[in-house]
Amino acid sequence: MDIKAATDSDYKYIVERDRHIAEALVKNKINEHEIFILWESNEEIGWMRFGYFWDNTPFMNMLWIDEEYRGQGHGKKVVLYWEELMRKKGFSSVMTSTQSDEEAQHFYRKLGYKDAGCLMQENAPLELIFTKNIV
Length: 135
Description:
It comes from Paenibacillus woosongensis. Strand 6 (114-119) and strand 7 (127-133) form a beta hairpin. The chain is globular. The protein has helices at residues 11-17, 23-31, 74-88, 104-110, and strands at 2-5, 35-40, 43-53, 57-65, 93-99, 114-119, 127-133. It has a seven-stranded mixed sheet with strand order 1-2-3-4-5-7-6, covered by helices on one side. 23% of the residues are buried. The chain is an alpha+beta fold.
């Protein structure tokens, strides 16, 4: 698997699949190198998108691996890649979240993420917040 920063040529792939971001923000995320595309045999198999919590802490907003490629270590590889990139940029910790009814919470804990709180939204499952020290 290869991990590459998204480019303008990935725009269509992203907006057709990532339903958790306003389409108007995608170009800016691409320009800021805040979306990575995962490739397997010259085919896009997923993406990872991040931003900054409180404008100062890297926050992984979205990690998606297509169903047929899950369970093969691709998610772990892209998360570790991102953490190393953030470490090189001088950050000492990163964050992410997932809903309490999603299996992803177990994935993040296996990667060393610690529960740091939660967010309650009306008519939605509890959003679990995770942090990880990367120094």
